[in-house]
Automatic annotation (TrEMBL), chain A:
PANTHER family in the record: NEGATIVE TRANSCRIPTION REGULATOR PADR, TRANSCRIPTIONAL REGULATOR YQJI
Domain Transcription regulator PadR N-terminal: 7-79
Pfam families for the chain: PadR
InterPro entries: Tscrpt_reg_PadR_N, WH-like_DNA-bd_sf, WH_DNA-bd_sf
Coiled-coil annotated residue ranges, if any: none
The name this protein goes by in its record: Transcriptional regulator, PadR family
Domain of life, source organism: Bacteria
Organism: Micromonospora mirobrigensis
Automatic annotation (TrEMBL), chain B:
Protein name in UniProt: Putative ABC transport system ATP-binding protein
High-level lineage: Bacteria, Bacillati, Actinomycetota, Actinomycetes, Micromonosporales
Keyword terms: ATP-binding, Nucleotide-binding, Transport
Any GO MF annotation of the entry: ATP hydrolysis activity
Residue ranges constituting the ABC transporter domain according to the UniProt record: 5-226
Source taxon at top rank: Bacteria
Entry keyword annotation includes Mitochondrion: no
GO-annotated cellular components: membrane protein complex; plasma membrane
Any Pfam family the entry gives: ABC_tran
InterPro entries: AAA+_ATPase (IPR003593), ABC_transporter-like_ATP-bd (IPR003439), ABC_transporter-like_CS (IPR017871), ABC_transpr_LolD-like (IPR015854), MacB-like_ATP-bd (IPR017911), P-loop_NTPase (IPR027417)
Family annotation (CDD domains): ABC_MJ0796_LolCDE_FtsE
Amino acid sequence: MSVPLTLLGLLEQEPRHGYDLKRDYDTFFGRGKPLPYGQVYSTLSRLARDGKVVISEVEAGAGPDRKRYVITDRGATEVDQWLTQPVEPEPHLQTVLFAKVVLALMLDRPAEDYLDTQRRAHLQRMRELTEVKRTGGLVDALLADHGLYHLEADLRWIETTGARLDALRRTVRP
Amino acid sequence: MTTMIEARNVEFSFGSTPALRGASLAIDAGEIVAVMGPSGSGKSTLLHCLAGILVPDAGEIHFDGARIDARSEQERSALRRERFGFVFQFGQLVPELTAAENVALPLLLGGVRRAEALRTAHGWFDRLGLAGLEHRRSGELSGGQAQRVALARGLVAGPRVLFADEPTGALDSLTGEQVMDLLVTAAREQGTTVVLVTHEPRVAAYADREVIVRDGRINAPDRVAS
Ligand SMILES: Nc1ncnc2c1ncn2[C@@H]1O[C@H](COP(=O)(O)OP(=O)(O)OP(=O)(O)O)[C@@H](O)[C@H]1O
Ligand SMILES: [Mg+2]
């Protein structure tokens, strides 16, 4: 699940109120599916419980929207690990990769390097599936092909995104 | 593992267009390496430099422990004939010759007698699933068949290194994978080192590893030659 990590990443960019956090999440990562307030606050309280964020100030008037959330060292370490580790190469990863690339650009991290790491992980998995195809029976080969075509689609997305990083950077870091 | 072929800080320009800007790559004996990267990044130029077709403006090419870029055109041409095999995107078979004569060509150029060269060439048709097509001319072969003939021609003389530039680029994906399967099987049997330029991930997945060429440089953090 990448919602908690994406929220953490946004908090690494700068501390935010729950309301701003939801708005920025919806703008960049919501894809027409806004995050419910309930999920924002339940996620934030779990992150606070686990010591990944702290509440910096409670303004007069109480209520969740008065709290400002600040990332801790532990939270920042987790974001860093998440960004630098390639995603397990399984089909249908595009949304997680997308979140990582956009966050990396927002945080001024080397998005190109992350894409390269991901490409290597994908090609490694494709090599394994190709070996299955070369040595196994027809059923294994067809199953391997299914995985290969989906991983190839991911890779194409990685190439296209890699070629447009400068433009994407300007879009997410106005 | 011993290095079979290596580029050290190779630079090459076509007139004022830089194609390679300090490309380094070392490939072990028997290794199959996919060279990937965007169009125009310098993949084919790198292959031509490694194979001694182009001479780098700067940097060095080493083959089997010896520097080859400083040799004369005549010596490099002999090296290409005797030690290297080639497969390109469009088979580039000689249209006047039969399929079997095309396969036999590297042997004939190497001084093997005609009867023997043709016998060896015929031996390749079975294993490539081309039995019965020995006497066709290239115009009478499908793209996939012609490419398998070209592959046999590239491997028939037992080269140390096979250079393949988009060998499946003109084929549909199933035919392309058959060609790759044959290429990898034959190269492994002969212990041939393969430099495989491709932009297709599914083709690159037949290699042992991949390197990415970008703006005339090689991005291979695991194994950059020092
Ligand atoms: N014969 C030539 N004359 C002039 N420029 C050339 C020539 N061949 C290649 N170039 C240029 O050198 C650069 C590298 O070309 P190269 O053919 O090595 O790229 P490539 O990675 O093989 O591309 P593709 O994937 O499109 O085959 C490009 O800018 C190209 O325009
Ligand atoms: Mg090329």
